[in-house]
């Protein structure tokens, strides 16, 4: 089942995608799926980020090859940081290079977990029972702010537009071994599989739920594989006119152009 969030005639609604049509839901899909009986053509709709999350929880250094390419220390436990919810942006919406820090903006393809119901102190065994589904994310990062200027990651990860999400939520999916990739202007930059995560989705959900209640709609970004722009020689950072595409097997492709801030 593919769940989308869309705008149509100024109204924002949720729906179920069926090929080229969308069945409109009566309400957000967290308590239950209630179909209204109304259908719209998919081509008439503007797809939005498929959820408006109460929190965006992100995991750093979760793929060993990415740890190695950045000469970082391998974490003993999940390395959590939090992105501002105002960083959220839609499929096809621009990633904006901020005037404050435009020169070292990087892409990061990530599998995003969408929590479907309150999760508090859940076990690894039961963790996936609390998942609504999965979507594609791009954990856009201003590397100069993240690694040199600030001494922590919050600002560099949270500029407006730095969390593209979508294009929809796929509910019928195992997260354990999915191909994940990034294309920049058509060139493959990242190519891996979620089987290479050091901390898998079950572990992450359980671990985080023992620290904080995971509310419905919470997004967990599960880390990025190797191939990021800052690790290349020379570095490859996003520039005005670029197009970034994050693709995950079984979900689809999240596409965003890049523009400079006006």
TrEMBL record:
Residues 1-50 form the Rv2993c-like N-terminal domain. This is 2-keto-4-pentenoate hydratase/2-oxohepta-3-ene-1,7-dioic acid hydratase in catechol pathway. One of its GO terms (molecular function) is metal ion binding. Keywords: Metal-binding. Belongs to the FAH family. PANTHER family: FUMARYLACETOACETATE HYDROLASE DOMAIN-CONTAINING PROTEIN 2A (PTHR42796:SF4), FUMARYLACETOACETATE HYDROLASE DOMAIN-CONTAINING PROTEIN 2A-RELATED (PTHR42796). Residues 56-259 form the Fumarylacetoacetase-like C-terminal domain. Gene3D superfamilies: FAH (2.30.30.370), Fumarylacetoacetase-like, C-terminal domain (3.90.850.10). InterPro entries: FAH, Fumarylacetoacetase-like_C, Fumarylacetoacetase_C_sf, Rv2993c-like_N. SUPFAM superfamilies: FAH. It comes from Oligosphaera ethanolica. Signal peptide: none annotated. One of its GO terms (biological process) is carboxylic acid metabolic process.
